[in-house]
Amino acid sequence: MEKFRAVMITDLNNPISVAYNKVSKETWKDVKSVEVEDFQCFTPETMKEAACWKLMPWAPGFKSSAGKYKEVGHTITPTEQACLTSMFHWWNHIRTTGEQVIILEHDAYVRNPKKLMSLVEHIPHTDLWSAGIAAECITMSQMFAKHLFKKWEDVENPGMHIDAGPMAELWTGAYHFEDWKKKHPQYTLSVKQRFGLEHMKSYLWPTRHEQNLLGYGNDPRKIFSGKVGLMNAPVTQCYFKGKNTIEHHKDLGDLTKDYSKGSIRQMEILDKLDYD
Length: 276
Fold this sequence. Notes:
This protein is an alpha/beta fold. It has one domain. The chain has helices spanning 15-27, 78-97, 113-120, 142-150, 166-183, 185-195, 220-224, 261-264; strands at 4-10, 34-40, 102-105, 108-110, 128-130, 137-140, 203-206, 213-217, 231-232, 235-239, 268-269. Strands 2-1-3-6-5-7-8-9 form an 8-stranded mixed sheet, sandwiched between helices. Strands 4-10-11 form a 3-stranded mixed sheet, with helices on one face. Strand 1, helix 1 (15-27) and strand 2 (34-40) form a beta-alpha-beta unit. Helix 2 packs across helix 4 (142-150). The longest helix has 20 residues, at 78-97. The protein is globular, with a radius of gyration of 18 Å.
């Protein structure tokens, strides 16, 4: 059986990141259809050396447009920038090569390998595929990646700057891509013919309710609202209380070096994390 390639984004020079990697990677051993390899992430010190950096039109002053920061404002932190740069590197890889690499964060923890393997089978004919609760386990079609990058070419349009995290950037891309698909129905027809599908589902994505649920279908709004194709997410994030590797907003996010209650109830909470 030909295996899908997965890359686990990790800071191999950070003991905490490596410790999460080891815990998570152990859970992938039963996912027989996927082969996981490590990828050294970009850091605040190295991100501008990334080949993709010049393709990233950041918002002026790195100002975030994320809704949760509406009242307080937020400047995207260097570690947030580096995290997105690592993701962007692989989105660009999919765009230029067509290889639907599964992009993993170091805390991508498999809870249901059998379910995950069944969803992996759908990757070739799914445009945006996320099997976790956030950005920890994602891939996309080459066509989706091409259109994702097109929206950033119009840097004179403020809405087209990079001004949010990977989940928001991808989900905004889904709405744009769905508009394009409606104008180009031959695309869906060609995918259905290629894979012998009677029906095609374009998006597998977490719902907004923070209940470990995914939606699978063609209407981004219904998916996000949890109104179509509901299922439990086979992947989550593992977490040992107080041990993060990314700095968020000083008053939100990791204010107490912790996640929100909604995030924590979806996570695999670890009793220990061995690191030096």
